[in-house]
Amino acid sequence: MFRFKIWPAALCFYLNVIIFSKADNFTYDSNPTVALLQKYIQINTTTYNDLGPAVKFWKNLAAEEGLKLKKYVYVKGMPVLVIKWPGSDPTLSSIMLNSHMDVVPAALEDGWIIPPFSGQISDGKIYGRGSQDMKSVSIQYYEALKRIKEKNITLLRNVYMTLMPDEEVGTVAGMQKFLQSKEFKAMNVGFELDEGGAVNLPVLPVLYQDKAVWQIIVECRGTAGHGSSFQPTNSTAVGKCYNVATNMFQYRDEQYQIFLSSPANDSSLYTSVNLNILSGGSANNVVPNLVRLTYDIRLNTRVKESDFQQQLENLIYSAGDNITITYISRNPQSPATIANSSNPYWTAISDAAKDMGIPVLPAIPSGSTDARHVRLAGVPALGLSPQINTPALLHAVNEYLGVNTFLNGINFYEKAIYNLANIPAGQASTNPSVYLTDTTN
Ligand SMILES: *[C@@H]1O[C@H](CO)[C@@H](O)[C@H](O)[C@H]1NC(C)=O
Ligand SMILES: *[C@@H]1O[C@H](CO)[C@@H](O)[C@H](O)[C@H]1NC(C)=O
Ligand SMILES: *[C@@H]1O[C@H](CO)[C@@H](O)[C@H](O)[C@H]1NC(C)=O
Ligand SMILES: *[C@@H]1O[C@H](CO)[C@@H](O)[C@H](O)[C@H]1NC(C)=O
Ligand SMILES: *[C@@H]1O[C@H](CO)[C@@H](O)[C@H](O)[C@H]1NC(C)=O
Ligand SMILES: *[C@@H]1O[C@H](CO)[C@@H](O)[C@H](O)[C@H]1NC(C)=O
Ligand SMILES: *[C@@H]1O[C@H](CO)[C@@H](O)[C@H](O)[C@H]1NC(C)=O
Ligand SMILES: [Zn+2]
């Protein structure tokens, strides 16, 4: 009895290891699409690395489909790539499928079970930096378009794959420059599809608005002196910044209550505030004349910038005199893309998900993507990554994507791109901004 109970479990474990990992390797290693993602992950595109190898990778893939890759460089070392898949009616507005080439840093020493730039498959999962964020998505776009082409299906609208160099560090050299360029204007984009994130639930979050990012440095200046001097707290730099922090924490606690009562898919209702850098002081025995606080703030999407700025500056300046604020970023509020059937692009996406049996969850995330700049430029944008039932490991150690999740995602994009690029002329307005709505009114 004892043996009987133990053996099957042990045997099962053994068989799993032997049969299934062999089978996995056999199936997956012989799948050229999986191999392509592995190859892309192997290119170390940590932001600011030479993107030459990634450019070459995409140039080859474009060439294999008889397509030209355009490379635009607005800032040295930061190429923006565009691959055009021509539609049958180039007079219609186009569909832009955006992704970014760069990834956040990763090193084996951080605790990875496999080297982060190896793209190795283990237990049915492709491991590596960028497997979720977002090299998988770039390959999925490409494979979906390739399959549509192989089926001899002509799409009505031009489809552009765009690949950005610096999403992870603020998109200043990539998307933001590109949106102001004549090249972007010439593309006549009617809709942009961008990234979302993995969720460990059987739903597909579709992001239709992003929060504005404000980052500030508060500098408090006060009476300096010998470490033994004794000035009123409120006259010292530290005392003033303490008052700033107290006011800001009070505001933060109020916002945190709103956060607690918000639905999981709605980060639009609260303003997040985080004090991320505290700096100042030069020696143990010197009272500093300058102390700095650096804040990262993500605005609730309903507040007007001018109103919020006034509120923020009141909180800070009321903490004492000789306090200054420097804005590192003060993004304008970005409109929301209409997330219902009155927007044909929304319908195209949700129909594709429905076909796959995946429920769509409209959502406003706590962070933000390139899509907010696209919406600001007057183009409706939605963000998603078809990574359902997948723990969110964006920027994390041991980032992975299930091989089957990756492959199913291609099926999803095949339907989604087909729907988007075949929206008839009469069904989508020639003015894309009608699918955007300002939420601060
Ligand atoms: C599967 O492939 C990986 C590398 O791709 C290798 O490390 C592993 O040993 C292989 N597993 C089996 C059971 O062949
Ligand atoms: C990837 O690039 C980063 C940034 O240049 C570098 O620090 C890191 O060592 C590289 N990793 C590998 C495995 O080459
Ligand atoms: C697509 O068209 C080509 C050329 O006309 C033909 O050889 C091929 O069989 C077609 N493929 C499909 C899937 O219909
Ligand atoms: C504020 O700054 C001014 C000019 O630097 C200085 O004269 C004044 O003493 C400072 N006040 C305090 C309270 O530090
Ligand atoms: C959150 O999801 C629910 C259910 O799908 C939906 O009704 C609601 O509008 C979503 N919230 C946001 C902010 O999109
Ligand atoms: C110090 O300044 C803060 C903020 O202006 C104020 O609330 C507090 O009463 C002051 N403390 C003293 C002792 O003056
Ligand atoms: C769609 O959403 C917009 C903006 O949120 C709203 O004005 C409109 O009434 C909605 N239309 C439908 C059909 O639900
Ligand atoms: Zn990303």
Q: Given this structure, which CATH class of the largest domain is correct?
A: Alpha Beta
Low-confidence stretches: 1-23
Give the CATH architecture of the largest domain: 3-Layer(aba) Sandwich
Helix % is 25-40%
Count of beta strands:
19
Ligand inventory reads:
2-acetamido-2-deoxy-beta-D-glucopyranose, zinc ion
Computed over alpha carbons, the radius of gyration is: 25 Å
Which structural class best describes the helix and strand composition?
A: alpha+beta
Please report the number of helical segments: 11
Overall mean pLDDT stands at: 93
Tally of distinct domains: 2
Measured distance between first and last alpha carbons = 73 Å
Report the sheet with the most strands, covering strand number, pairing sense and barrel closure. 6 strands, mixed
In the CATH hierarchy, the third-tier topology of the largest domain is known as: Aminopeptidase
Percent in strands:
15-25%
Order of helices and strands: HHHEEEEEHEHHEEEEHEEEHEEHEHEEHE
